[in-house]
């Protein structure tokens, strides 16, 4: 059952990944994600339905537009395949549980926001702010149907805690962290708080560690300086993903090292 669920969610992820390619390109530019339909970025011709099959169409067309033969970035199938894999992993982790829709939504916005932040150094309000009510509504399902009201309350409290923490950091060091990161921290707090306070601590800590390591590597490679502004959103989201998957184990391992 778990393998079948993961496969089904993987296929769903491929389709969602195709849509996320549109989101990543259009949302930062203030364009509609609905109209016009998918089209070639070079010649503007609409993409035919048979050429809009995730991953497969790109492979069959050898990465080129059918109309103008201009190359189509390999990022498109990679985003589709990556989203499919992330959805499958999420389903394998959550199983057939009422929390699954909520965490699939988290997987989708993780892909979109990470790529947008890398591209334009911004976390659009158009995605982050609606994620608060969407996440709350999706987490309300397991809270109501499985009686997990304590988990929902902890999720809300964790959202407030992480939002306040990141807000304080942004105010204390202007320019070091954007307010897009502050708003995203609240969304991350909702999800990690649902799982437990150890996941909240691990997710927040890993985000800072991963961001610091990436910055150090870029400085060592002379691709950045100590004053360079690096997007923090992808590292926050990666830290959250690791905390979702293994936050409890990592926290217990840390305590064991301390002899607690």
From TrEMBL:
Designated name of the protein: Prepilin leader peptidase/N-methyltransferase
Q: Which domain of life is it from?
A: Bacteria
| InterPro entries for this protein | Peptidase_A24A_bac, Prepilin_IV_endopep_pep, Prepilin_pept_A24_N, Prepilin_peptidase/N-MTase
Q: Give the stretches traversing the membrane.
A: 76-96, 102-120, 127-145, 151-171, 178-194, 200-220, 232-251
Q: Where in the cell is it found?
A: Cell inner membrane; Cell membrane
Q: What are the entry keywords?
A: Cell inner membrane, Cell membrane, Hydrolase, Membrane, Methyltransferase, Multifunctional enzyme, Protease, Transferase, Transmembrane, Transmembrane helix
Kindly give the PANTHER family that the UniProt entry links to this protein: PREPILIN LEADER PEPTIDASE_N-METHYLTRANSFERASE-RELATED (PTHR30487:SF0), TYPE 4 PREPILIN-LIKE PROTEINS LEADER PEPTIDE-PROCESSING ENZYME (PTHR30487)
According to its UniProt entry, this protein's organism is: Motilibacter peucedani
Query: How is it placed in the membrane, per its record?
Result: Multi-pass membrane protein
Residues in Prepilin type IV endopeptidase peptidase domain copies: 105-213
One GO biological process term is: methylation
